[in-house]
């Protein structure tokens, strides 16, 4: 059955994902929780698969344009994939995510942090760019710090579905202020998120918490719109969108925490 509200939510989120690399969890999760009153564990499950499939489309377009920094992606994967897999293994061994009473509050905190991180990204770039004068010192810690950041992101994504885009982009801004342009950062962030979401999503799929009907409607809206967003990402800087989005995320995170 076709349901317009879910299609519209998917279209909005897909467009933002394609344009900025952020939104799969940070936007869709609050929409599912606040507007559709979806139980947290179901929202996480659907959001993971929604993000994975939507970002596959966006990543293919960015890859075709040559914007993906695969070396950075691999560094992130070294931390994020094992971390996400660990959570999945814990779920198969009996970890009941749905019984974690603090889950909604954790999601609220993650959304709030994502919004703040996006807002202060330019300041973070200014702070970290002075490391460019010490390339040998900075390059020696870039790889291990990227892997550690990936591990943190993997855990956050597996538990809340939030983090791969929003927190990942902030981490990349701090670690690669000179190497990654806005377009390459968006492309690299999106590409990294896909297998992390798939691995984490498998745990929820096996637990039977994925609502295929709702997911189908979300994807009906997101797949066309992520193509539009990704095509526009090469034409102008998405910073203005990020500023508006960061404000919305901060307010949304606060609302979730106060529920």
Would you kindly provide a written description of the structure presented here, covering whatever features stand out?
This protein is mainly α and 259 residues long. Helix 1 runs parallel beside helix 10 (212-233), helix 5 packs across helix 8 and helix 7 (135-160) runs parallel beside helix 9. 51% of the residues are buried. The chain has one domain (4-258). The longest helix has 26 residues, at 135-160. The chain is built from 11 helices and no strands. The chain has helices at residues 4-20, 28-35, 40-64, 70-92, 103-119, 121-128, 135-160, 166-175, 182-206, 212-233, 239-258. The chain is globular and about 50 Å long. The mean pLDDT is 82.
Overall tally of structural domains? 1
Mean pLDDT, as a whole number?
82
Q: Major sheet: size, sense and barrel closure?
A: none
* Order of SSEs: HHHHHHHHHHH
Q: Give me the Rg, rounded.
A: 17 Å
Shape: globular
Q: How big a fraction of the residues is strand?
A: under 5%
The level of helicity is over 70%
Tally the beta strands: 0
Structural class by helix and strand composition? mainly alpha
**How far do the termini sit from each other?**
31 Å
Uncertain runs are: none
Question: What count of helical segments does DSSP give?
Answer: 11
């Amino acid at each position: 059955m076709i349901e317009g509200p879910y299609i519209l939510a998917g279209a909005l989120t897909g467009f933002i994902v394609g344009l900025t690399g952020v939104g799969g969890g940070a936007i869709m999760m609050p929409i599912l929780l606040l507007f559709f009153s979806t139980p947290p564990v179901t929202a996480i499950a659907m959001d993971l698969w929604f993000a994975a499939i939507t970002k596959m489309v966006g990543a293919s377009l960015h890859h075709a344009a040559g914007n993906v920094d695969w070396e950075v992606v691999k560094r992130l994967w070294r931390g994020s994939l094992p971390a996400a897999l660990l959570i999945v293994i814990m779920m198969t061994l009996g970890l009941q995510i749905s019984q974690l009473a603090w889950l909604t509050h954790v999601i609220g905190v993650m959304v709030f942090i994502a919004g703040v991180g996006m807002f202060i990204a330019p300041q973070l770039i200014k702070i970290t760019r002075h490391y460019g004068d010490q390339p040998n010192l900075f390059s020696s810690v870039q790889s291990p710090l990227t892997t550690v950041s990936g591990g943190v992101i993997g855990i956050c994504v597996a538990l809340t579905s939030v983090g791969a885009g929003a927190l990942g982009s902030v981490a990349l801004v701090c670690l690669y202020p000179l190497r990654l342009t806005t377009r390459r950062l968006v492309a690299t962030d999106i590409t990294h998120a896909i297998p992390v979401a798939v691995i984490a999503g498998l745990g929820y799929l096996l637990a039977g918490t994925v609502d295929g009907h709702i997911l189908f409607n979300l994807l009906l809206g997101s797949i066309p719109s992520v193509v539009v967003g990704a095509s526009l990402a090469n034409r102008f800087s998405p910073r203005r969108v990020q500023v508006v989005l960061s404000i919305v995320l901060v307010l949304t995170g606060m609302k979730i925490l106060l529920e």
